[in-house]
Structures are given as C-alpha cells and as structure tokens.
Amino acid sequence: MIDRIKKLAAGYFEEVVSIRRHLHAHPELSKQEAETAAFISSRLTVWDIPHQTGIAGHGIVATIEGKVPGKKVIALRADMDALPIREENRVEYASVNEGVMHACGHDIHMASLLGTAKILKTLENELKGTVKLIFQPSEEVYPGGALPMIKAGALENPRPDIIIGQHVFPELEAGKIGLCPGFCMASTDEVHLTITGKGGHAATPQKVIDPVLIGAHVIVALQQIVSRNALPTTPTVLSFGRFIADGRANVIPDLVKISGTMRTFDENWRKEIKEKIRRIAASIAEGMGGTCDVFIDRGYPAVFNDPDLTERIKSYAQDFLGSDHVEDLDRRMTAEDFSYFALEVPGCFYRLGVMNESRGLTSNLHTPTFDADESSLATGMGTMAWIVFNELM
Prior knowledge:
The two termini are 12 Å apart. Helix 1 (2-25) packs antiparallel against helix 3 (106-122), helix 5 packs antiparallel against helix 6 (267-287) and helix 7 crosses helix 9 (376-391). An eight-stranded mixed sheet has the order 1-2-4-3-5-16-6-15. A four-stranded antiparallel sheet has the order 10-12-8-13, with helices on one face. The chain has helices at 2-25, 34-46, 106-122, 146-151, 211-229, 267-287, 307-321, 338-344, 376-391, and strands at 51-55, 59-65, 68-79, 128-136, 162-173, 177-179, 182-185, 187-196, 200-201, 237-244, 251-252, 255-264, 291-298, 303-305, 326-328, 347-355. The chain has two domains: 2-186 and 302-391, Aminopeptidase (3-Layer(aba) Sandwich); 187-298, 2-Layer Sandwich (Alpha-Beta Plaits), CATH 3.30.70.360. The protein is α/β, with parallel strands linked by helices.
C-alpha cells in the first residue's frame, strides 16, 4: 500500500500544486473565506466526495466512507484563513488581494488535505471505516473557528475516534515531518491594559499624573512574574508589543493603552498569572496616582498531542518517509485552535517541513516573504493518507 499511495501522490501532485497556487493567489481573511470555501467545495464535488458547507461560517465537513466494513472514524483538519500582510514574493501565484497573504501556510494545509482526500477517495474500495475532512475557517483571530465548528456539530454524526492535523514548519526541510508528544504548543491569552492619569504640558511634570511613566513601570514589574514566579520547568511568556501613548513631544496624554500576549502550558498557572497581572498593574498605577484597567481576553488552550497516537504516527511516518525524514521536535510557545479539537478526542498535530535553503525558501511564518517548497505537498498528502490507512486497520 505504501507504493500505491506514493504513486497516487506523485500522480496527483501537479493538480494539487495548481490548487495550492490558486488558494495562495486568492487569500481571504478570517471570517471572510467565502470564495475559498466555494473553491474547496467545487473540488470535493468534482471528486464525488459528500460534504456540508456553511458550518460555523464558511467551514466545510466532508466524509469518505470506506467500502470495507469498519467502525473507526478518523478526522483530518486544515485551516483556511489568511493574514493581513502585503506579500513581497515575486512569483506567478502571488496574492492578488492587496494586503492579504497566506503567510502562515494555510494554502498548503488546504491543498495537502484535498490531495489526501483524492487519494483516499481513489482507494475507498480498500478503505476500512470513515474519514471526516474538516476545513476550518478563522484560525488566526479569536475566538477562532474550531470551537464554533465543534459547537455546530462538526465532530458528530459520526464522532471521530481521533483527529489529526498538520502545520507547515519553515525550520524543517521539505520532505520531512516533525512530531512532539504531549503538550506541543502553548495556551495564549491577550492582555490589554488601560492606564489613566492626568495629562498636561511636558514641561510641568509636577502638575500631571504621567500614565507613560506608570506604564513603563508596569511593564517592567510584570516581567517578574516570569523571572521570579514561574516554575523554571513550566515555560511561560509574557510579552508586550503595543504601547500607545497618544501625546506629543511636549504633551503628556491622559491615558496609555498597552497590549501583549501571555503563554504557558499549565492551566492552573495560567489562572494564577492573570491574577498576578491584575494585582501588580493595579497596585503600581494606584501607588503612582493613577488607575489601571486590566482586560485579559482568553485565547486558545495549549495543544496536547496524545502520546500513544503520536508514537503510532511517528512509526507510520518512518515507514513511509524513512527514519531520517522524521524528527522529534521541542514544544513551541506559538498557539493553535486545533487545541479545541484535541480536547474533544485524542489528537495529533504534527509539523510539515517546507524549507529549501538552496532555493532561498527559509522565511519565517507571518512574514511577507514566506513561501514553501511545493514538494512538501507530496509529503503531506501521502503521509497523511498512509497514516489513515494504518489507523483504520
């Protein structure tokens, strides 16, 4: 079966590349993926794969029923949305939508899953059990598309026994995949601080309550949560990327707005961090004569890869790709709403290598020059199809 799947992946490769290039050239932002969904639906229709559209917005769930009796159900997930980034790549398939780009590789995810679907559909007479294909909108912005799709019944009728997803990884060579058992991606919450003081002329600081100074003290103090309160064995990140003090060189404003991100892997510690942020920020602002309003927008939970499932997938991938093309990866502080699916059923979210240093394809995710070695599409769709066949045996 390995040779048959590899042959099919090679045979469908050019078509899947063309799908990827179409999707890359026509990116759509979160909650706006109407044309993307219509294109995916058209491919599924041509291949005679039953599917439902319009799930929790523009989500799609397709089903492939194997002709060999079997009760097991496997779900495969790809995300659909793009980012508000102006593409700088000079390629024929560059984005035609100004200021919108598939800079996180979701075009690869969708095309690879469609390729997997075509392979499985071709082999349905030998397929045991059921495969659900989940095309999810709105991964890039809170509250994400996974949870609304779950609430809309995407994991029901039938309910999957496991769920699998993959994500491009520009630090890994094309032709390889990488896995991390257990917690592999962090939870994420957005921290928003509004510090209010009393503005005035910068030349008379004795007459103002300076929210800029208060904000500076708050940011520095909050770093002690990571350096002095977090367990060294529990990775924690608290970073601030937005500090808006809308005054002038000689005008101190009335208020300052600060925003940042908080990430960790432990749910109890996650709650404790929030209380520490509120207490420290409020007390410093009050001690300096101002006030601080703290709003923490709860984001995605940490992604947990079921260890047993991850070990099985590692073994399948080694058989399919060769042991030298399967790597163990460290956990990362990035986040993904695949975590919600993995809270419902055992899941595995692995990395698909897309780097090609000789061709200059080394840019990081979420940058205007990110691109992928398209040979990774053959790796992605073939490996996933092989995983499915093994899990349904």
